[in-house]
Amino acid sequence: MRLTPTKSLSSAALLILLLGVRCSHGISLSPEEANQFLSRHRRANQVFEETKQGHLERECVEERCTKEEAREVFENDPETDYFYPKYLACMDKFGDSEKKKQDLVTCVHNIPDQCSPSPCNARGTVRCEDKKGDFLCHCFTGWMGARCEKDVDECSKRNGGCDHKCNNTMGSYRCSCHQGYMLVGRQMCNDVNECEDAGVCGTARCENKDGGYECLCDHGYVYDNETKTCVDVDECLTGVCAGECLNTPGSFRCFCDGRQGMKLGQDLRGCKNITPCLSPSLKRNSRSLYLGRMFSGVPVVRLRFRRRIQTGFSAEFDLRTYDPEGVIFFAGGHLNSSWIVLAMHRGKLELQLKYGTVSRVTSTGPIVNDGQWRKISVEEQGRSLVIKIDREAVMKIAVNGDLFTLKKGMHELNLTVGGVPFREDGLVNQVNPRLDGCMREWRWLTGEDSSIQETIRSNDNMQCFSTENPGAYYPGTGFALFNISYESQNLSLKLTLRPTVAMGVLFALVYQDRVPLSIALANYHPGTDEWRDFVLVSTGDAIIASSPAPLCDGESHEIQVTITGNQTLLLVDGQAGRSEDTEVPTDLFSQSTTFLGGIPDDVLLVSTLVSAPYSGCMEVSVNRRPLDLDQAMHKHNDIRSHSCPLLDSHQ
């Protein structure tokens, strides 16, 4: 072992001190003793080891060293404390075998280097620094810990600086953006304008939004992601209407059943009651008999008189009518026996009679269908029949026979009022038996039948209105049906009316469940979204002509509609309405049935704009020919063909 100058000086000082002590005590040492005291045992190769101060291989590999000797190699305690236990382990493992000499050398040489092998996490370490008994791991950015083994969570602080999402990774992090954004640089997120792709929304309208986009459709449509198209929303499936609902492209329409007295509310969804604007004077006379109650033409009254002693026939009554044609009464036996029929024909009284094989028709006297009360009498006087109007004879007809029929010893006579007891083709002269007329103060065979009075008093429909004007009356119930041949595609209509309700069907052509043409009063115009009184001319639910028309004032108004090809002209009291460029299916006119005052129940509400029956007075001409409701194929019994009650302002 080599002595350093410091060590030599210390030895010399110690020697001098010892000599002084010895001299002071009188103790002396021989040179040999002094030399032995100051020296220590040295191993072989002493000179070489001194020159190789602390050389690890000389100290601890070629020979086993003590901890003190190891201390001389490292010259510090930490490294010595770290080295020596591991050194002993190397010696125990490799020191006894010459064959393992090299392994021992390697084992011992590697002990002092704290970084061999590196204790640091290789993935997170830049380098390992040997700290003489310790080590220092220098970490990459994103790693931490004594061995750089812990990932730094950059996202935990200010979201890693990311605009949107921060994704921590081992030793680093990554910024990402929400859908609809793209990463610019490492941390910034910018919106992506998806609408720059022309096909992104298909046929819909694309609207770019912050972080996304939206495919927009017009109101009433919804976007279908699969087909990339706008699909109509069927709002009717949600029960949006109180009545019936018609889904239309992009919208819907609600309909209320006017035949049930309902109309559309101003919210265009709900239904409310139809109310009159005028009130007709419907006061009735309980001592009067209405002759036109049964449209079928069957009599409204049937009487049978039986006498033991034959008497002459006599009848007297008051009559009021505007109807030019119809049966007043029949008297006699059966069809092939003797009978008479008093009727109206062309506004005058007409008497048809049959006595055995002799038939005769006589018509004379003044016009009596002027709405005035007339007292009429028919009386057998000998072999003559005398007819009087207002007590003046207008006819005297010779007859040969009796109206009474002898049957089982009794003289019998049948009397019917308002019709005949057989088919109308059994009449001598064909007349329409339906008569819109009123009778009062009747006396049959010089007596009054009290049973008729009781029946009439208990049934309002058998009673006449107290006051009447000429014209057909539609009470807001039912309709009249005609089978009119429309050979031309041109159509001219004239309607004279006094409505009591500002809503209702005036005229309609119906083909199956379709309504090719309708003229109606309405309080709403669906085309202009206006709420006021209108006359609407429509085909189906499409308006072809319209005009504002406040007609509910008790006055008479005139509506004219002329259709020539696809041109429709509407005049209301001479003022032209607005015509639309809508094709009119005139080809269906010839196949259609004509309805006045309403439409049948089997026509769907959605087939036409107005379904409510008309209420009020009205006269109709088609192609300049007036329509007589008595000539209809069908008419509701409450519709009066030739008389209309007076109209008063509705309070």
Automatic annotation (TrEMBL):
UniProt keyword list: Calcium, Developmental protein, Disulfide bond, EGF-like domain, Gamma-carboxyglutamic acid, Glycoprotein, Membrane, Notch signaling pathway, Repeat, Secreted, Signal, Transmembrane, Transmembrane helix
Q: Where is the signal peptide?
A: 1-26
Chief subcellular location equals: membrane
Q: Name one GO biological process term.
A: Notch signaling pathway
Q: Domain named Laminin G: which ranges?
A: 287-464, 471-644
Which cysteines link up through disulfide bonds? 120-137, 139-148, 617-644
> What protein am I looking at?
Growth arrest-specific protein 6
Instruction: Give the species this sequence originates from.
Output: Pleuronectes platessa
